[in-house]
Amino acid sequence: MSNLVTLLLNENIKGLKPYESARRLFSGAGNNQQIWLNANESPFANPYDIDAQRFNRYPDCQPPAVIDAYAQYAGIETDQLLVSRGADEGIELLIRAFCTPGKDSVLICPPTYGMYAISAETCDVAIERAPLKADFSLDVQAIKAFKGKVNLVFICSPNNPTGTSVDKAQLRDVIEHFADSAIVVIDEAYIEFDRDNSWADELNNYPNIAILRTLSKAFALAGLRCGFTLAQAPIIQALMKVIAPYPIPEPVAQIAAQALSQNGLTTLEQQVRVINQEKTQLKHAIDAYAEVELVGDDKANFILFRTANKSALMAHLVARNILIRDQSKQLNLDNCLRITVGSPEQNKQLLSEISRFFTNQSSTQEA
Fold it and tell me: What's the whole-number average pLDDT of the chain?
């Protein structure tokens, strides 16, 4: 690091480590033959039309076509919605708007999505933790103990990487407990795989909830970087004070509006149905191995499992251009691997290689 950078670098940034995204972990390994099952992306790639006539103009901060379409999709009012550069920006905006650097704190419930902590650290906001119980349910009493100590409570449902949904009665208890002291942020990135547990229809009842959504998962638009924050109007108005002036590029807005059209939503439903069918088959096939223990639940588009052969299996798959995600660094997830549900063909190849691995392992042990 140069002397100038050392001199000027924010003290809070010096000790940070970048978020280990799936692409960053395998940044030098990309080729057309690889099967990407490590980032909870959709296996589908859908075509869209682009009109370049407005590319010479700055885009709308909140594109009306996108706001109107997503508000209708989510069953909320347009003033209860903000569109951003992925749900990740929504996380950062909430922290910037409602936490004072060097003073305030947020609460997370590990094991969970890593960007809550990364965003807080980047903003010099402290992180408190109320770990999930052994069955990955909320430890409600532990969470409640932080009343008056945190400004934001992040709860992911369905949770990444456990695939579990949060019990509605428990979450309601948490929301009501923090009614006068903190915003409860419900991350619904995977809600299209668990529709019955959405909190969007409760938005008018609770002024202290914010819901994170995205087009990256079920909508098959991870490359678009388009997400949403749903909340009552006062929270949305506060977020508008800290968002960039032109956060949504014109091509992103055009594609998002098409994805949220009637045809786009029909495609979404069809593809979610295929992914759920494949998920069930994949889960049953993996569960058949004595060396494997399924972990968590299947309420998203991935499967989590534990095996003592974690490192060897991971290496076997990577050597054959099949990339999955090691979750062993997460709390209580030792020896755990996460598999994103791919296309039928990808899942077939994956299962073939897993079968080959365990067959080879058995042969080696017998010899």
Answer: 93
Q: Is a pLDDT exceeding 60 seen at residue 31?
A: no
Q: Kindly give, in sequence order, each residue whose CB lies less than 8 Å from that of residue 2, ignoring residues fewer than 6 positions away.
A: none
Backbone torsions φ then ψ of 114, nearest 5 degrees:
-75, -20
What distance in Å separates the CA atoms of residue 37 and residue 349, rounded to the nearest whole number? 11
Residue 55 CB neighbours (<10 A): 11
Q: What is the pLDDT of residues 34-47, one digit of tens each?
A: 999 999 999 999 99
Closest alpha carbon to 113 in 293, 325, 267:
325
Find out whether 180 and 151 touch, Cβ atoms under 8 Å: no
Task: Match 């969470």 to its residue by tokens.
Answer: 143
Q: Could you tell me the CA-to-CA distances from 319 to 278, 310, 322 in Å, in that order?
A: 24, 14, 7
Query: Is the bond preceding 161 in cis, omega lying within 30 degrees of 0?
Result: yes
Query: Are 188 and 195 in contact, with CB atoms under 8 Å apart?
Result: no
